[in-house]
Write a structure and sequence with these properties.
The chain is α/β, with parallel strands linked by helices. The chain is built from eight helices and ten strands. The strands form two sheets. It has a seven-stranded mixed β-sheet with strand order 3-2-1-4-5-10-7, with helices on both faces. Strands 6-9-8 form a three-stranded antiparallel β-sheet, with no helix packed on it. Strand 1, helix 2 and strand 2 (70-75) form a beta-alpha-beta unit. The protein is elongated, with a radius of gyration of 19 Å. Keywords: Methyltransferase, Transferase.
């Protein structure tokens, strides 16, 4: 049985999960692919994808490293792959508790994983341990607390968005997510021994009725019960979802903070 602090509110098998994965892939995969290329992903690489979700990044990595490279995609609840590949293996795995082969991978990646784990430093260290010397690690998480309104039809709409979004953040934090982890991930990467650290932040405008803003809809629909229990009236949620369709409303997307670095070729002396 999962302990409360390990509960992941936006579960892979939730009814809204396929829509969430689709939005994340359309809005963020291009940025992730760019960061992986900058890290040095190339044909022949052995790759680890942690928290693979629906597998869009893992599938792209498998294509990128073919024909001689391979990808191991792990998740607590792996989603069925719609595009299986001979060089892509999928495994049920807990990055905090379950072992990985040491010194095995050239590239490791985790997106929107560490912020949800109370033992995130252990998970980060486990991924570093799985890298070969000189291997690269990319970790990416949302700056979840930061979603400012850019344009609004009226001041009440701004207050409504803030009310629901703040309640969503409280639910996530209550389940163990660190909404400010992204701001600390660079320092954490150095703490676990990565060197040659780099970072990149991706953000864009999400307008009502557009593709990206649908992420707010699928997330809050999946957590509807928890949001109502937390004090958001059902009619306020309905008005919030209607607001997300209004082209006169616009917000800044969740900023995806990407941090990457390398495992030293030789053990560091302390």
């Amino acid at each position: 049985m999962e302990t409360p602090e390990r509960r992941y509110m936006l579960d892979n098998d939730g009814a809204e999960a396929p829509d969430r994965f689709a939005v994340l892939a359309r809005r963020y995969d291009a940025h992730t692919r760019d960061c992986l290329d900058r890290l040095g992903l190339a044909p022949g690489a052995r790759c680890l994808e942690v928290g693979a979700g629906a597998g869009s990044v893992a599938a792209w990595m498998a294509d990128r490293v073919a024909p001689d490279g391979s990808v191991l995609a792990t998740d607590l609840k792996p989603a069925p792959s719609t595009t299986p590949r001979a060089n892509l293996a999928v495994r049920r795995h807990d990055i905090v508790r379950d072992p990985l082969p040491e010194g095995e991978f050239d590239i490791a990646h985790a997106r929107l994983v560490l912020m949800h784990l109370p033992d995130r430093l252990t998970a980060l260290a486990n991924m570093v341990r799985a890298l070969r010397p000189g291997g690269g690690l990319l970790v990416e998480d949302f700056a979840l607390a930061h979603a400012p309104v850019l344009e609004t039809p009226d001041t009440e709409s701004t207050a409504l968005f803030a009310e629901v979004h703040d309640a969503f953040v409280r639910v996530m934090a209550g389940a163990g997510a660190d909404i400010r982890w992204a701001e600390r991930s660079f320092a954490a990467a150095r703490e676990v021994g990565l060197t040659d650290l780099r970072t990149s932040v991706f953000t864009e405008t999400w307008r009502g009725g557009g593709d990206g803003i649908a992420l707010h809809r699928v997330n809050t629909r999946q957590l509807r019960t928890e949001l109502v229990q937390g004090g958001v009236a059902p009619e306020r949620l309905e008005r919030f979802w209607a607001l997300l369709d209004d082209p006169a409303f616009a917000v800044t997307s969740y900023s995806l903070v990407s941090v990457w670095g390398r495992k030293p070729l030789r053990p560091q002396l302390i």
